[in-house]
Amino acid sequence: MALIVQKYGGTSVGNPERIKNVAKRVAKFQAQGHQVVVVVSAMSGETNKLVALCKEVQANPDPRELDVVLSTGEQVTIGLLAMALKDIGVKAKSYTGGQVKVLTDSVFTKARILSIGEENIRRDLDDGSVVIVAGFQGVDEHGNITTLGRGGSDTSGVALAAALKADECQIYTDVDGVYTTDPRIVADAKKLDKITFEEMLEMASLGSKVLQIRSVEFAGKYKVKLRVLSSFQDEGEGTLITVEEDTNMEQPIISGIAFNRDEAKLTMSGVPDKPGIAYQILGAVAEANIDVDMIIQNVGHDGTTDFSFTVNRGEYAKTQAILENIKKTLGAREVTGDNKICKVSAVGVGMRSHPGVASQMFKALADEGINIQMISTSEIKISVVIDEKYLELAVRVLHRAFGLDQ
Fold it and tell me: Do 170 and 299 reside in the same domain of the chain?
């Protein structure tokens, strides 16, 4: 008998019929003798509807109250799934994040999990029930409802698996695993049987939408056995995300091509070239709780520098306002920006032992006339910022250049 945590995304529970299908799948696992904890998202499209509803009432919704509204999406799903299980003779009990108690910090709309209470869950499992927990949500130390940000149900599922020391965490979604790139862009993209946590972490951080980055971080940190599967297929092993590289076979140089459209670049030009300037710029951005990605500094011959960095496109206007506000204080010349860029990345642990990956990537892009605006590298990834209009071409070209279509 194993303890399994299963997480089902919004498309998997998108309507009553799909919820009933999830119930049948869960019942099948329990019938095999397993204890099952299920984490669910809101029904597909529901969170967007709730956000739109809030904006009709308040143009910039209060973060605390926004979380109160958004958390209701998952509450609907847990109740419906519990009913569907009971309707086919399976004992089930649903819990909101607050009832479990998923304790988070107080950063509304993108809270982080601090701890998870196990008592209620273990009691119900021992009693023979399937336990259903609302993903994406928790409560802070003051009892306020919090949400974990988009894709937060993945994090809820993995965090629960870690807290319960589950034998496996299965993430059910609308795809049957992790692919070398998005099959909607490259038709011959291949499903990966295995991928390392390290590679998956890079893929998630670079724009792959299969798993939320924090869920992969949790899984890697607590060594949770993680598997991505399709909720619409009964067959298949999905993709196993492993802690260690497979040393029994030759590791491919590149495992996948990731991309992210939600990028924007800002540049503060003519900044005095002196110690502390980078901190003054990025410190102001960090205080606004805005994540910065790539950073480039170009030093001129006149004692000034141009300081460029990228942020999520949704934070573009807010970041631009911050830079305009501190421009005069820093003695900078101007602030410019571009929110029509994208990031394309090649990821693979095989890079460690294969030189020349960067030059191969840059040549493939150059041959197609695609200009590179920014470059960022790590031990297992190379990312470039390019004009958004070249995104799909760049992904196809790199997928082919690294032999991922073979």
Answer: no
